[in-house]
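During data preparation, we tokenized the protein backbone, and the record follows.
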Amino acid sequence: PKTFTENKNLPPVVITDFMLFNKEVRADEENTPLDKSITFSDSITLQANQNSFSFRIAALGYQVPKMNKLMYRLDGFDKDWITVGESPIVTYSNLWHGDYQFRVKASNSDGIWGPEEQLLYIHIRPPLSFHLGLLHLFIVVYCLLCIYFLVFQAT
């Protein structure tokens, strides 16, 4: 026990893979939301029909790597940090359109949590029907205002 030393190395965290509907997505594919590898991305914009996705995350600590721990949180959805179990895959399904921030942090084999977090900003665009609904609402309100002013201008 006297020869053991405290592990002061804090592992960096990476997002290694991005999946849409359980299918891995790469930046070099056609119709991909990725401009570059998810590992080097700091933001991603998804269409309304791409609102179910997964990430594979990893802590790059090599001194007893099985003892490293990961926690994640999706700001705008999760209320608290979630500890990763056996599988390093994090999945979100049927998210509402809007802006989110995916955050991941890691601890080393001694349970010391690093201050650094891996951040990924996620924007999910609203569906076209949402835009059309707003347009219809605007048209109805505009027509009602026109009728109102025409009626009261005539009297």
Q: What stands out?
A: The helical segments are 128-154. The beta strands are 13-20, 23-25, 43-46, 53-59, 69-75, 82-83, 89-92, 98-107, 118-124. The radius of gyration is 23 Å. Residues 128-154 form the longest helix (27 residues).
